[in-house]
Write a structure and sequence with these properties.
The structure holds two protein chains of two kinds. Helices cover about 40% and strands about 20% of the residues of chain A. By secondary structure, chain A is of the alpha/beta class. Chain A is globular and about 60 Å long. The model of chain A has no long low-confidence stretch (mean pLDDT about 100). The chains are: A alpha/beta, B alpha/beta.
Chain lengths: ~325, ~325
């Protein structure tokens, strides 16, 4: 039986239901927890997230993936309590990136010279978050990560971003969890780095493929052809950087018509609670309740809608 | 009224006693908390730390200045408990060891924001501990030159020092021309700055300690004990005699500008630490070496009591 790692333990993949693959629960810019003007009120954060997760459930969603990695506010104990309280399956992630988001421990270690961490050390760090449990810093390990997420620098993958991506790929090879890759400047190139480690493309989701530059470059189709999952994961965002929902829906249909219905994923990168950066206060259920009906009105079939919302994330998240 | 902020509240300068001016309860690079290889139970942490502070106190140590920056595992609640149970005054810092230890929230911040952060930690408190910082830590990132972020932190520290009267303590004194230019532009008297680590094995040759002192800066020989003679010396170690001779040459003419410390970790957070090296090197090795070299007791008092008292006393 295929299972998926959730914060409350392995869950049968068939039980996931409708999944939001690229979202954030608590999102804290590294360091903001020490800022004089940032307050971390756990009870308040819980209340807000529980309300949003309940609304997600009420709109038909059943599983949410916090894809922010291990160093951007992830709070395993809070997520366990939220999952128990709301009934929504929560998949937490390991991984880090881009380089700018890392602590000095990884970039300027206390060695001479201060050589940044190589891929194998990241693979070890991330892998243990699956085999031994996710870290509650300096206290304990709890649960297993269900995804290893990494992000490349927007202007292009740096050397350390590449170490992170290769480390994430090795983690996936060893542990069987999938890789989430938010590409930098060139989606196909960055995917190639991950696949260069010998990981098969169906273990990778590439995020951000509804960026205008990616669409203009034909990246969504190219990534699907390579066999990786194509995440159009800014649903609900209409800005200079991303295509609109109408364009997004047309892209979904075009990908389906090209034979890639089994490679599409939809999500919003909504942020439940943001600390140290602007929030993105979109309902987690926006994809299900607003976007999919739009796509259906433009011709997306019910079967393909279900494939995109249920089957594809189930296949991606199943530990192999 | 002269006062110094400690983690248990302000104390009169007169109560400081002998000061270890640049030390660490426990230091780790930001992110090291994610790597379980360094984790220790609280039982082990207290077991490693309390005897060192007790020995410091029994040897006549009065005040331990913790130079662990904001993102380096600074843990003020822990320091409060250590201070209350051992009787050692502990001064905590605000600021950063260097730009490369400031996490993204601060790395992206403006000088104005960083100034507000430092002033808040000095005048209101650190987090929700109620403890106020007594010094501001700044430093030069790895690589030998001040980065743009290092410079923003120095400038913010200068403004916070002027606003609050709390002094600045630096990690490394290389590239001092840039540091002095910033302090000059901000109008901060250089006797409010302790330029530290002028004696470390990597940087001593590149550090213009005499020049800094002649401009009015205070000078920290504060990595005493990191010696090449150790069983497993760190890369910044230096031969014991070479460092001592450097110090003795320097105090001949600059005794009023000098401070000394060991930069030891009681219980390191994100690195192995250096076996056998503790804050008590000051009593076990350094002060005996200074006596053997002919220093008078009055000189030793100047270095470890009077100069730190002048430096740490809040100016307002």
């Amino acid at each position: 039986m295929n299972t998926v790692n959730t914060v409350l333990g392995p869950v049968a993949a068939d039980a996931l239901g409708i999944v939001a693959v690229h979202e954030a629960l608590l999102s804290v810019v590294p360091g903001a927890e020490h800022a004089y003007d940032v307050t971390i009120d756990r009870a308040e954060i819980f209340e807000i997230l529980a309300r949003k997760l309940t609304a997600f459930r009420d709109s038909g969603g059943t599983t949410i993936v916090d894809s922010t990695g291990m160093f951007h506010g992830r709070d395993v104990r809070l997520y366990e309590a939220l999952s128990r309280s709301t009934g929504v399956h929560i998949v937490a992630s390991t991984g880090m990136g881009p380089e700018e988001m890392l602590g000095g421990y990884f970039l300027t270690p206390q060695t001479n010279p201060p050589t940044p961490w190589p891929a194998e050390k990241f693979a070890d760090l991330f892998g243990k978050e699956i085999t031994e449990g996710m870290v509650v810093p300096r206290v304990e390990r709890r649960g297993a990560a269900g995804l290893v997420a990494t992000t490349a620098t927007r202007d292009g993958m740096t050397a350390t971003d590449e170490s992170l991506a290769r480390g994430a790929a090795r983690t996936a090879l060893i542990t069987g969890v999938p890789v989430s890759l938010r590409f930098g400047a060139d989606a196909v190139r960055d995917l190639g780095i991950v696949l260069g480690e010998g990981l098969t493309a169906d273990r990778v989701v590439v995020g951000g493929l509804d960026r205008r530059d990616a669409v203009a470059a034909g990246a969504p189709l190219a990534v699907a052809r390579r066999g990786a999952y194509v995440a159009l994961d800014h649903v609900g965002v209409d800005d200079d950087e991303h295509i609109s929902d109408h364009e997004r829906a047309a892209l979904v249909i075009a990908l389906v018509e090209a034979g890639h219905a089994d490679r599409i994923l939809l999500s919003s990168n909504a942020i439940g609670v943001a600390k140290g950066h602007p929030d993105h206060d979109l309902p987690y259920g926006y994809v299900v309740s607003s976007f999919v009906p739009l796509a259906q009105s433009l011709g997306l079939s019910d079967d393909d809608a279900r494939r995109i919302l249920v089957d594809n994330p189930r296949e991606l998240l199943s530990v192999r | 009224m002269s006062r110094v902020n400690t983690v248990l509240g302000a104390i009169p300068t007169e109560e400081l006693g002998l000061v270890a001016i640049h030390e660490h309860i426990g230091y780790g690079m930001p992110g090291s908390e994610l790597d379980t290889r360094w984790w220790k139970t609280p039982e082990v942490r207290y077991a490693e730390t309390v005897p060192k502070l007790r020995a410091f106190h029994e040897c006549g140590g009065g005040t331990f200045v913790d130079a662990t920056g904001i993102c380096n595992g600074r843990d003020v609640d822990y320091y409060r408990s250590l201070s209350a149970k051992t009787g050692v005054h502990i001064v905590a810092c605000t600021g950063f060891v260097g730009g490369d230890t400031a996490l993204p929230h601060f790395a992206r911040a403006s000088v104005e924001y960083l100034t507000r952060q430092f002033v808040h930690e000095i005048t209101v408190g650190i987090g929700d501990t109620g403890s106020r910082a007594g010094v501001i830590k700044v430093g030069v990132s790895r690589g030998g030159r001040m980065t743009d972020l290092d410079k923003r932190i120095y400038r913010a520290a200068a403004r916070a020092a002027l606003t609050t009267g709390v002094p600045i303590l630096t990690h490394l004194a290389i590239d001092a021309e840039n540091a002095l230019a910033i302090f000059g532009e901000e109008g901060l008297p250089l006797d409010r700055v302790l330029f530290g680590h002028v004696d470390d094995g990597v940087n001593a040759d590149k550090t213009r300690a005499t020049w800094i002192a002649e401009q009015g800066g205070r000078i920290g020989f504060d990595t005493f004990g990191y010696e090449t003679e150790l069983e497993d010396p760190p890369f910044w170690a230096r031969p014991r005699k070479e460092r001592l001779d450097h110090f003795l040459r320097f105090i001949d003419g600059h005794l009023d500008k000098v401070l000394a410390s060991a930069d030891a970790n009681c219980s390191p957070l994100g690195w192995p630490g250096v076996k056998g090296h503790t804050v008590n090197y000051i009593f076990e090795d350094l002060i005996p070496d200074l006596r053997a070299a002919g220093l008078e007791e009055a000189d030793i008092t100047t270095i470890f009591v009077d100069n730190p008292a002048d430096f740490l006393t809040i100016q307002n």
